[in-house]
Amino acid sequence: MEPLSFLPFFALLLVLLATGTPVAVATGLAASLGALVFIGQGALTQLGVLLFAQASNFVLLMVPLFILMGEALGATRIGRDLFTAAQIWLGRVPGALPIGTIFSCAGFAAVCGSSPVTAATIGSVAVPEMMRKGYAPRLAFGVTAAGGTLGILIPPSVSLILYGIITETSIGALFMAGIGPGLMLVTLLSLTVFYLIWRNPGLAPARSAPIDTSERWTSLKSVIPVSLLVVAVLGSIYTGIATATEAAAVGAFGALLIAFLLGSLKREVMRRILDNTARTTAMFVLLVATGLFSAFVLSRLGIPQATAQAIVGLDVPPWGVMIAINVLLVGLGMFLDPMSILVIVVPVLFPAVVQLGYDPVWFGILVTLQIEIAAISPPVGFNLFVLRTVVADARMADIIRGGLIFVAPLLVGIAILMIWPDVALFLPRMMDLK
């Protein structure tokens, strides 16, 4: 069978996505049609097998637990408290509120795992406060959209879990590998804010008055619960006390306990938390099953194998191939959402990347950085539309202009990761996860 003959079904998939069809449904429909035409009706039974296997997969149990953890904390004032603490501690720093937004996004990302949720939770507080204090709208929106992308890089990350399942890569290793690049991006985004304000002081108001020392220490009380939860979840994985799934259970219990102690766990709130967790988990399991079924169909047609042979056979060095792959991913990110890139593109490119000698864990972090760019790239960027929804009277032009500004530091992060892979691989190697 000629692999290129499957291209019409890729076109069908893109049409379905363009019409707003959910990624899991679009992937399943396109793959099922391809299986019927090229393989036979019997191949469709594999979809049922995959659905049952993933629904009963012990590793996937971490998904509803991490989602529950993020939903529980999202129902509390934790996001607002993180932003307040960052604002107080950075009060005398040029661009204190935008940089505080980045740090609060990083803190919330460590207990959330979702980019849109991080952007919505922090953005609903940070953007109005920055605009009230006199920051330029494009800076306020841009830094929040970019900071929100940390939700899919700093562990626990739902996107890294999906990548690990699709490529059969250790999720624990991926979690540990996300920490170094996550801190690197926090630094790069903060430096970008410094640079923008240095070039154009009109983007930010004058520095605020000094903050009383006692107020600074008081503000940290709100950070303590999150810090303890992060240490409990990541620390248990790092020390080998618990698997990633067991750590997720610890995180979910800790988040519910924090929400209860803060007085946020009312009956209607608990009902909403469980409802959102169930809906998101169901869609995630369906996405995993249809993504794996799509990979099965592609593999039967020989598309990943042919792509790998074609790429490996190119008369260019491996780093040249990786640059081309990065350019391709940046382009696709303008039209595909992050989950689509993971379930459609990764199964095709992954075999070639491995044959070129690159580390699967490293490639997972690289792809995650790419889908971070996709999250703030028009016309599809999810974080841009999330901010338009949660911030009243927001102008889409300001949101898009702001998001595009912060594409540059993300590209710099990709370049650094390609030149120095140990930024991502240092911790997994040190923990002997590699």
From TrEMBL:
Q: Which family does it belong to?
A: Belongs to the TRAP transporter large permease family.
Coarsely, its chief localization is membrane
In its UniProt entry, what is this protein called? TRAP transporter large permease protein
- Source organism (scientific name): Ramlibacter aurantiacus
**Which sequence ranges are marked TM in the entry?**
99-127, 139-166, 172-198, 219-241, 247-265, 277-298, 318-336, 341-358, 364-387, 399-420
| Cellular localization per UniProt | Cell inner membrane
Does the UniProt entry include the keyword Transport? Answer: yes
> Superkingdom, according to UniProt?
Bacteria
Where does the signal sequence lie? none
- Lipoprotein keyword on record: no
